[in-house]
From TrEMBL:
This is Sigma-70 family RNA polymerase sigma factor. It comes from Shewanella pneumatophori. InterPro entries: RNA_pol_sigma-70-like, RNA_pol_sigma-70_dom, RNA_pol_sigma70_r2, RNA_pol_sigma_r2, RNA_pol_sigma_r3/r4-like, WH-like_DNA-bd_sf. GO terms for molecular function: DNA binding; sigma factor activity. It comes from the Bacteria. Pfam families: Sigma70_r2.
């Protein structure tokens, strides 16, 4: 980022290529509206460009970048209450029909996995927003609690609690829904 601030367009290209996929997925997983996710994604990069001349290395670039993204999501949530505009996560990355096996055992196992994935999606969608964000940053992005705390502007202990409560809530939700589904 310092090289970009000094005028190197190639430095920006390297930053963009390194972070474009994960940052875009971050927005898609947080926001239900694909167009809005794209707009916020573009707005993040626009803010990076505008802030280049004043960028300071007080935090890792990745942390700084996701802090901008986090703040844009928070601004959107405040402007568009209620919070239930956030999306489900863990969208299927592949065409499941193309992978269905012909024998019944594999088909049943695949259907069972899909059912579990749907349960998990619903449970993640129902998490409080701060827990959902901490969980997604931890699981999908691989960020540590310390980095997530920097991004969210929360204490390390609060962030650890959010992650812990997210996992606990997901386990309880999935267990409860799974028991309910298996008795239907």
């Amino acid at each position: 980022m310092l090289q970009y601030a000094a005028g190197s367009a190639r430095a920006f290209e390297v930053l963009y290529l390194k972070h474009k996929g994960p940052l875009y997925r971050y927005f898609v997983r947080q926001i239900h509206d694909q167009q809005l996710a794209e707009d916020l994604y573009q707005d993040t990069w626009s803010r990076v460009i505008k802030a280049a001349s004043t960028y300071e290395t007080s935090a890792k670039f990745t942390t700084w970048l996701y802090r901008i993204a986090h703040n844009l999501i928070i601004d959107h949530v405040r402007a568009v209450k209620p919070v239930d505009s956030f999306t489900e996560v863990f969208e299927p990355e592949q065409d499941h029909e193309a992978h269905l096996a012909s024998d019944n055992e594999n088909l049943e196992a695949q259907l069972l996995d899909n059912q579990k994935a749907d349960l998990l999606k619903g449970c993640v969608a129902n998490l409080p927003q701060v827990q959902k964000e901490a969980f997604l940053l931890n699981v999908e992005m691989g960020f540590t609690a310390a980095i997530i705390a920097d991004i969210a502007g929360a204490t390390l202990e609060a962030t650890k609690s959010r992650i812990r409560y997210a996992y606990k809530g997901l386990k309880e939700c999935v267990d409860l829904k799974w028991q309910g589904a298996s008795h239907d």
